[in-house]
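Thread title: Can someone regenerate the structure for this chain?

I was given the following input by a collaborator and told the matching structure tokens would be attached. They weren't. Posting the sequence so someone can regenerate them.
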Amino acid sequence: MINRCAATRHGLDQDRLAAFVARRSGATDGFSLDVRPLHGGLQAAAVARVQARFEGRRDHPRRFTFVVKRLDGAARRESAIYDSLLMVGGDASAPRVLGTDDLSPTARYLYLEHVNPRQRWP
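Best answer:
Regenerated them for you:
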């Protein structure tokens, strides 16, 4: 089950978000997505925190939380910067890149590790 209204309202394709969660977790169904907009991301067309909750095992519910950014046009350079950081060994203070999804030749989703807002970063 996906909070389709929230995903669509914030310019995100809910089916792509579900496909990313399925690829990352191996679950093809039995999960729900909660999409919450995040403020900031001055270059991004849309930024949201997504929490996937996996159904099943009542004694140990699984969750997977990440941030997705929609980068259009020149803003795609942010994704290239993360790629460059990975090639040189990365920076422990930066969120990890979980994946990317090309929407078109000029648009891309960048999936990042969710950083707890209560923790100091960077």
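Confidence is low (pLDDT under 50) at residues 1-5.
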